[in-house]
Every structure is written in C-alpha cells, then in structure tokens.
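My current task is to audit a protein record that another person submitted. Please read both lines and tell me whether the tokens look consistent with the sequence. Do not assume that whoever made the record got everything right. I have pasted the whole thing underneath without changing anything:

===
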Amino acid sequence: MTQRLLAFGYGYTAAALARRLVAKGWTVLGTTRRADRPVDAALALLRFDRDHPLPASAFAGVTHVLSSIPPDAVGDPVLDLHLTDLRAVPGLRWVGWLGTTGVYGDHGGAWVDETTPLDPTLARTDRRARAERAWLASGLPVHIFRLAGIYGPGRNAFVNLKDGTARRIVKPGQVFSRIHVEDIATVLEASMARPSPGAIYNVCDDEPAPPQDVVSYAAALMGVPPPPEQPYETAELSPMARTFYRDNRRVRNERIKGELGVRLAYPTYREGLRALLAIDGR
C-alpha cells in the first residue's frame, strides 16, 4: 500500500521529513500560503490558508498527516477548516502536530518533562497550549511533538556570524533547549513506525545551554572572533526577541528515547555545529 503524507505547512521541518519519505517511495502533498512558491519536482504543493481551504481531492489516499501551522487568534486553521475531512479519511493511521516547549512557561531553569503542567506565559504559547488540547480532543490518531529551538543547514550560528547578526546576549542562568532538524525528522519517522495516539513528546537534545556559548563555539570552529558579550538588561532587542528570554527551563527528552528508541545524531549543539561546519561554516 502506498503511504501518503499530507503536510499542512510545508516549511523547514516538513521538508526535512519529506525528503526522507520520498526517497523511500512515499507520496507527499504539502501546503503553502504562497501561490507562487516554487515546487519541488518530487512534491505536490497546494495553497492553503483560512481563505483557501483544500479541495476534497487532497485527502484521497492520505495515510499520515503532519501539521506545523501555528494557531492564530481565532484557533487552529487546520482543525477549523478540515476536521470533518480528516475524520472521514478511511486509511488515516497517524497525525503529528508540531508544537513548542514554550507551553511549559518559566521554571527558573528547572527541568520539565511531558508530565509537567502547562503554564504558558505568552499569548502565542497560550494559543499553542489551547491548540494542543483541541488536537488531542479531535478524535484523530494525534501525536504531539513539543519542539525546542530548531537549527540545521542554513539556519544556525555560522550563518548568523557570516551575515553579522550573531549576538552574545548574556542573561545569567538563562539556558535554551534546541534540536537539529534532522533529529526532528528521525523522531517523526520513529513515531510513524510506532504509532501511539495521544502521545506527547518533547523533541530536544541532551544539553540545554546558554545561547552565548553556542555562538562562541561556532566562532571558534570558524576561526573568527566572537561578537562581544552584551548584558541582557541593556541589549537593544526587539519586543519579540526579548520575549524569548522571559522563560527559562531545561527540557527532558527521555520519552523519545525510551518509547520510540530514538538515538539522536546530534545530542548537543557541539555535534550539530561540527556537522554543519562544512555546509554553512566555511
């Protein structure tokens, strides 16, 4: 039986997964908000947003669904427009929803896991928490993936150092969790192979770390001086950028290892950056 993935929001993470699946003979259909977006030869891409729902034909033969579209102020656009269509898909075996570890809120640098009560501190993470609940109550075979900060080819500290946007903002005690995009794809594939509807997974590496340490390490690998440290209190940051420093937590990832058998290719930012050096750090 042909396996067919419908990816709502064909972005950075969905593309990493799709490349693997297409190579294994899957059919992948993705969505985009841009009608003029170039289409990969191996991929069908349809326009989707609240004003452009998908045609009924898009759901034919779908076996797996991935949604990386964030909720808006109204709700989750995929559920609002297509829950009935998804419930009617006869061969649907797996649904993955990509969320964020931001739903845990601030824990003062303490560890959190999937059993930690959600306590979002921002409007955008509160919307994510409400969307999680809606997906879990949808009656679909849903799996929730709470993603840490994503990096990978074209999106990393090397790129920021080369284009002059890298900064070492220091807020004492502040750490962030992160995850390489290829490790996300590994987790998603492992879940597809071992479905457990209703499961929730933190997707992050083994070492939450201060952001300035990541920049310093990347600069050392490139052989360039790192940007100067800037105290968080006096650094010029946009209101959006400043919100990322509001919460401080360390995120555990034991469930993806114990339940899905995942072995991370990049267990810390060091392995990830070393692997990216030849791509983006030269």
Observations:
- The chain has a mean pLDDT of 95.
- Residues 4-152+178-206+250-264 form a domain with the Rossmann fold fold (CATH 3.40.50.720).
- Residues 19 and 179 are 18 Å apart (CA to CA).
